[in-house]
Amino acid sequence: MDTPTCSEAVRTHRLCEAIGEGRIYRIDFGTAEQARTFDDWMLACAAARAFGEARVWRASQLLCWTLLPDRWHGLVRLVGLDSLPILVARLKAVAAGSVNLAAGRSGAVWARGYHERAVRPDEDCAAIARDIVRESVRRGVCRRVGEYPFWDASWLG
């Protein structure tokens, strides 16, 4: 029998953790070729609508997100049978479909892969959400969070 690689063992462990556990992850991923795709208002709106679609999340929850011109950041509670790679792939596919439809084109919207970090049980999710939402200010997209429309947080109601 082959010994699983470290990454396979980690993925298997995360899938086991995710089933019914409600594990929370901070994730982010970039656009294809680091293009500033979402400088285009219409395309940013199309992506933002896609992030709210129930078919993306199923039992899992999007707690917070922000869309930058070349990157997406989010805080996700993984629930049910989804693994993180499957959830991220579904999110990217649905958003890419919406963006490509709005642009009248086809092709890659997102770069391959993503970054993730499991949130420890002792961490403050609201503080992490504030940090995610402030990405637009840190990256110079706006001066105040309230000036930027492409974000949301479940704490707002």
Give an overview of the whole structure:
The protein has 157 residues and is of the alpha+beta class. The protein contains six helices and five strands. It has helices at 6-18, 41-51, 54-57, 84-103, 125-133, 135-138, and strands at residues 23-30, 61-68, 71-78, 115-118, 151-153. Strands 4-1-3-2-5 form a five-stranded antiparallel β-sheet, sandwiched between helices. Strand 2 (61-68) and strand 3 form a beta hairpin. The termini are far apart. Mean pLDDT is 88; it is low at 1-20.
Write the SSE topology.
Layout: H1 6-18, E1 23-30, H2 41-51, H3 54-57, E2 61-68, E3 71-78, H4 84-103, E4 115-118, H5 125-133, H6 135-138, E5 151-153
Q: Total number of β-strand segments?
A: 5
**Class from helix and strand fractions:** alpha+beta
Distance between the termini: 51 Å
Rg, please? Answer: 16 Å
Helical percentage: 25-40%
What does the oligomeric state look like here?
single chain
What is the helix/strand order? HEHHEEHEHHE
Mean pLDDT: 88
Number of helices: 6
What is the strand arrangement across the widest sheet?
4-1-3-2-5
Q: What form results from the Cα inertia axes?
A: globular
Which spans of ≥5 residues are poorly predicted at pLDDT below 50?
1-20
Assess the beta-strand content as a share of residues: 15-25%
Q: Major sheet, described briefly?
A: 5 strands, antiparallel
